[in-house]
Fold this protein.
Amino acid sequence: MSSGGKDSASAWWWALCQGWEVEYLVTMCVTSGDSMMFQVPGTEIVEHQARLAGIQWVPIKTNGEHEVEISHLEDGLKRLDIDALITGALRSDYQKSRIERMCQRLGIISYNPLWHQSPLDHITGLVANGFGVMITSVACEGLDQSWLGKILDNQSLDELIKLSNHHRFNVDGEGGEYETIVVSGPHFTGSLVIDGQINWYGRRGELSIDSVSVSLDC
């Protein structure tokens, strides 16, 4: 599964590193604007990530209704010839347990390669391995609008770590402090160029994506 963010992009890169064949990038597209299980904003980016990785994109619509949205995913997966599902779950027991029970019903294996990975190891590992992690929303003390649209590099990561220590937020954003999309990575043949508008609401904000273009590696 892939939402377009750093966790899911890291998870399916892990699968590729194992030498596994990743047939599909499955994205839950929430139409209601809210979900207990799945990321809502920015998921349309996965279509472009899939193109850069040469993998088929499979969008599955859901209204995000509690305890119903997992059935929408299950119905969508039934149509695919797969033997395993890989997710980027880090510390959400709610998400992990429901995914695992669904996979049992489908007779496939559930893999969660990032599960309980150290927050600092996770975020530093992404930058070290060449992931272009763009911050698309912030919602905590210490992160202002200057972070919206910023792509993490060694310098900005150092600043993020300092701010997380000072303001006591999760450096990997797992508590909802910020959300991301991945615009480049070791498993992409190019990068994504994002054009958008910053919306700031006083103490939180988001980058609304207007357009996405693809820049292929020469």
